[in-house]
Amino acid sequence: MKVRVPRPGFPYSAPTTPRGVEPLPEEPRWGQDYDTDWARRTPARYARFFIVEGPMRAAVRALASPTRRGQDRLDAVRGPVIFAANHHSHLDTPLLLTSLPDRWRHKVVIAAAADYFFTNRYTSAASALAMGAFPIERKTVSRRSADQAAALINEGWSLLIFPEGGRSPDGWGQGHRGGAAYLASRTGVPVVPIHLEGTGRIFAKGDKKPRPGNTTVTFGAPLVSGEGESSTRFAARIEAAVAALADEARTDWWSARRRAHAGATPSLVGPETTSWRRAWALGDRRSRSKRKRPAWPDLG
Amino acid sequence: MAHRPGFVLEVDRSTPPTLFHHGEGFKLEKLPVGSRIIYPSESLPTLKDPDGAIRHALLNPVDKDPLPSLLFPGMKLTIAFDDISLPLPKMRRPDIRQRVIEAVLDMAAEAGVDDVHLIAALALHRRMTEAELRHAVGDRVYDAFAPRGLLYNHDAEDPEGMAFLGETEKGEEVEINKRAAESDLLVYVNINLVSMDGGWKSTATGLASYRSLRHHHNVHTMQHSKSFMDQHRSELHSSNWRMGEVLKKSGVKVFQIETTLNNDTFPSPFDFLQKREWDWTAKDRATFLAVSKTLDRTPARIKRSIFQSIEAPHDMTGVNAGDVEAVHKLTTAKVFEQQLVQVEGQTDVLTMGLPYICPYNVHSIMNPILVACLGLGYFFNLYRGKSPVREGGVLIMSHPTPWEFHPVHHPSYIDFFDQVLSQTTDPVEIEKTYEKQFAEDEWYRHLYRTSYAYHGVHPFYMWYWCAHALQHLGGVIIVGGDPKAVRRLGFKPASTLRDALEMAEDVVGRNPSITHLHNPPLLVAEVK
Amino acid sequence: MKALVFERSLARFAAAKVAGALAPGRGAGPGPLRLKDVDVPARDGWHRVRPRLAGICGSDLSTIDGASSRYFEPIVSFPFVPGHEIVGDLDDGTRVVVEPVLHCAIRGIAPVCDHCAAGQTNRCERVAFGHLEPGLQTGFCEDTGGGWSTAMLAHDLQLHRVPDDFTDEMAVMVEPTACGVHAAASVTEEHVVVLGAGTIGLCVVAALQSPSGSGSGKHDKTVVVAAAKHPIQRGLATELGATVHTPDELEGVIRRRTHSMLIGDQLTGGADCVVDCIGSSQSLQQALRIVAPGGTIYVVGMPATVNLDLTGLWHREVRIQGTYAYTHEEFERAFDVVRAKDLGRLVSATYPLDRWKDAIRHAAEAGRRGAVKIAFDLRNEKERERL
What we know:
Chain B has 528 residues and is of the alpha/beta class. Chain B contains 20 helices and 20 strands. Helices cover 30% and strands 21% of the residues of chain C. Classes of the chains: A alpha/beta (300), B alpha/beta (528), C alpha/beta (387).
């Protein structure tokens, strides 16, 4: 005899929709509308604390052996700020999260591309939990995202943003978008420019496997939007500050300051030429060669 | 809390026991009823935006053109800065020197100045290590200049590196660092912890050689500086100012930047050390007990490394830039505003607790000679007008005074203690018989130039620093010190403060008046 | 008669070595030295001497502690009565000091060896031959007896009449002073460093600082730096005219005086001449550190077996020279030095023979206990008068 166990029906399973009835339009639950509030409540913050200080820090140390410089420039800064960094790799976010001074490390949210990190339920939850990410559009920031970011800053959360809008495709930087500058002007908090050196060599866009290497995180002096300064000009100032930090990380502070004052800071964006010439001009900055860089500094 | 000025407390029956510093530790002592305690002033309000204040000072200097207008492409710029002897204890990063030097360099970069040297103006002190230089000027400046040999320690024994500039009207030879002397502009970055620092002493002493220093670092000068903290009555000051005239005449252009600090000397958990005893909270008392009980059971080496790692939460109370003399007037006024305490009349017995640090044992060992120098040289001279202790009075200091020397930092001190103080403690005799031998000793010279040793003649200066006190006092007693070391110094050892006070009565008579200098944080007693 | 006798007994030697290694002077208890009743010695043509004071010397102590070298075995003869720093009475009542070296002439060897012929009796080649039993000095020879007894024998050539102005204490110091005179006579250098300020060290300082020390007065201007460990030694050395420092300070002092540099512990320059009056591995090693290239180390203290790194000796062409005892002429000069420097004061304490263990303990710890020379006082021994 064959016993049939009946499948439990409604209300034990979802109701079926009767024919002829127009169902309510399904609300988009991820992408840029993903609600990350839960990730800023206490239990999630504790979880994030342990993720950041535990596996994330260990992984960063193993992969990126970071040198962190210039934190002293932030000594006088209190309250929320916007961190604006250049972007070469998925490693950038963990590297930054573990590098921020204590005051901000566990009270920071990350503006992450909605079309990449918030594509489904699982990536959305993981991004929000591990990185404290919230979704934002790459191209033009929508009013809703901007409001949300401003509200978070006003609540005392700091914001980490990559104004280039995405990882570098070829090792050169990309022009800054205005999001960071706009939010800073709107909320009045300072922008801290940060330059990350070396993550592109370890795990660039398109790489299959990370290759451990050395990185340098250089914090710059905080910038405040001037009275009546347009956010475009402020964005340019932030971009220049990051470029000057890049110069400082590659040479030294004094040379970088002199070039900065002379308007001769090397561009982060690179020459506008054919792709091979751009790659050529990059030198060994993107090289994944195993050959060690010379131990002696080039003293010029 | 608004800052409360320093004052003199008369001890009565309800006065809690008084804190005495005692090397790497502290003691609470009950002073006899009727004794007086001079308390330092609490910290002055500090600058809210130090970097802004520094920039403002550089752009609006006193009696000088703004710094940017003194900078031009192709010029020779030298930035000299105070060494590790300032401030005490070393301050939390970023050090003031870093802030000022970065501001100056940023202006120099803007003006397109290429030829910049940075020199630690350490006179005959030991050279600063890489870590110490990094702490003082910051990693950015260090990494930019030190690898190219553009950031270095002053070397007073480099025959090629010194420039003779002439003599003062009193025949004092002036010889300073050649690079500094030949620069188009010499920017001096100073930290003014006590009123003796700064002014022409920065350049005329900090960048000078033995040939030049011996004219004011001698017994005569020190015995005629009453005290050397009071520029109007200090022969040391006058001599440096005469040398300053020579510097000016020979065309050395100095842009002086002087900074002043508040009295925040001790970080948590040691911050109770700068509170008045009756203000101690339950937490302070618990910390005091825990700390002192722990220290009692801690080996000396570990205690030393704990204390030497203290970084003071000093903040800037002022920054002035411009002409040396004009700036120094403003600076000393600010220093006195923080440190001056009015005291009525002199006392028979002056007591003080000596802390673990003096200008010459940063990251090092406070040897007996430095103990003498801190007590008789520095603390005794913290007065304006008259000394707080009467002539022929007794000074009681509390310090463990171990017979211990840092072999790398203080090699000539060891020989001075063994070979000179064992024969005589009279500064005049010591100066006459031994100074030249030590000053010209090839080995000390070698260590000073290539290792991290104080110059051969430096222990003599420590002893000369005591000369005024030795002449003034009727006796010196050290409480809780190694008796053999204390006797070698020519002082009397006592095991407790009570014993010391009894011993003092033999010198000054029965029922003496007693005053305690509640120091540090620093204070300068103005005695009427 | 009573005498302290040193006998050949392997078991006791071993016991003394163990005890002596624990603490200096402890070898006296279990060791081969015993207070015994022995026959009064007699020998044709020799004088009987009844000791008044007999000093305890460093070499005696190392023998008692079993620490002296096997080298001595063939040049001593058992059983012997120790004691070679002797002032005593002849039977006619003359006070004499005994010059203990037993050289050819005393041993009846003729012709005498070349050294003896040249007057350098301290270098005699025949100390184990002739009609006497082997023994480099009185106090190590079976036939002569020694100072630590109530009677002994001495040859005519060994006797020095004691001047009337000499106390017994001064007289007993003549023998050690003669060692100092001999060392001082070897020294020709300007800057002299004396290591150690026990009896021998002080005697060397005294000889160096007194015109009669070397006969010619050539050491008048010699700079003497003495390394003295104990306060009593420092006081006496200073009084005798040395600049005194502790052994720890010595490197620093010599470095500064000679304007040297330092390479590790080694001075690049150093003292022209170091007189080591201790003779230990440490003192010799220190001497090597502070002696100038081409300089000389005189070893006055008996060194026994030492462990030395001689690389510096090789590299810096340093000489180490022994100085042993004295010649007859130097012994005579020692009287003047004792008188000029009042060396009788170095005798800090005396003991009767019965308290010999205390005496030896005291001598072994002399510096620490504020003493220099310890001697046996035999003047009050009862049997002395009966003999």
